[in-house]
Amino acid sequence: MPLYDCMLLLKPHVRKESMIELASRVGKHVYKRNGVLTEIKSFGQVQLGYGIKKLDGRYYQGQLMQMTMMATPNINKELHYLNKEDRLLRWLLVKHRDVKFGLDFLSEEDSRNELSRLPRSSIFNFNEDDDDDDDEYDSDQEGKQT
Length: 146
Prior knowledge:
The structure is a single chain. The chain has helices spanning 16-32, 75-78, 108-116, 131-145, and strands spanning 3-10, 36-54, 57-70, 88-95. It is of the alpha+beta class and 146 residues long. It has a domain at 3-95: Ribosomal protein S6/Translation elongation factor EF1B (Alpha-Beta Plaits), CATH 3.30.70. It has a four-stranded antiparallel β-sheet with strand order 2-3-1-4. A hairpin with a 2-residue loop joins strand 2 and strand 3 (57-70). The protein is globular and about 55 Å long. The mean pLDDT is 81. One of its GO terms (molecular function) is small ribosomal subunit rRNA binding. Belongs to the bacterial ribosomal protein bS6 family.
């Protein structure tokens, strides 16, 4: 099953409970068709580049949500019921194409080169003594107090 991102742009006044209910409804729809919801992200309130006109006014802000899912290829047709959802300003379904995770996206030779670029030492050097910075701060504070 391919991986999809469903972007939902909701009206700015929609309550959090209503957003969760809409996300669960989409998730149940995907699950009934043997799909899996892998991730849900909320980006909160966003400013729009242009106003979106709806029957109840023009909106310059919205609440953005991203749902990542593995679903059957006909999920686009099955989600068209979202067009009738009055809480939504827009929705978009994007298919991930040729997605490979980790070092699978590199060939074997490239992956060896990729790993060789990483430093062999830890990013945390525990041998250094960083207490010198604290001493400078203490001496600056003493100078200001006198």
